[in-house]
Structure formats: structure tokens, C-alpha cells
């Protein structure tokens, strides 16, 4: 995973861990609810894997939150950092993924 993508994955994993702990769920219990393995959930929380939008939606459902709640990056240091991360994700994405990102953003804006 590229350095910037890895940094994003770490921040996302921390947010997912934070939300899971608020719900007092173990990794295994949350993973079971999401339909993924406990090992994979742990990798997500450590930021060692890049999560697909489909898996992110399953994680949100398991935690009883929206994808928008997971993506709430108030713990990131600045707007500029967020824009840089988005730019990297967009630049590296293929066309189908860009279309998926656009649909996701439009959905979250509602």
C-alpha cells in the first residue's frame, strides 16, 4: 500500500475501532455481524488493508452507524490534509471506482 493510502487506512481503522469500542463489541462479534472474519476486522482496524466500499458498508451496518459516521474525520488535523487524501484516492482510482466514489459522495450529501 502506498504511504498516503496507508495513512488513510490507519486513520479509518482508528475510527472503526473507536466506534466499535463505543458499542462495547469485540472484534469477533463485530466481524461476525459484518460477515467478515475477525482476522480481517483486526487488519482493518490496524490499517493494514485497504477496505472496499462494500466492506465499509458491511462494517457500518455491523456497528449500527452510517458510512458517513465512519468517514467523519474530525480527528484529522486539517481540511488541507483531507483534500490531499481525497486527491490521492481519486488519482489512483480506475474509472469504475471513480463512478462508485461519485455515487457514494452524492448519497452522503443527502
Automatic annotation (TrEMBL):
Pfam families: HTH_31 (PF13560). It comes from Candidatus Mailhella merdigallinarum. It comes from the Bacteria. This is Helix-turn-helix domain-containing protein. Residues 16-70 form the HTH cro/C1-type domain. InterPro entries: Cro/C1-type_HTH (IPR001387), Lambda_DNA-bd_dom_sf (IPR010982), TransReg_Diox_bact_type (IPR050807). PROSITE patterns: HTH_CROC1 (PS50943). Keywords: DNA-binding. SMART domains: HTH_XRE (SM00530). GO terms for molecular function: DNA binding; DNA-binding transcription factor activity. The keyword Metal-binding does not apply. One of its GO terms (cellular component) is cytosol.
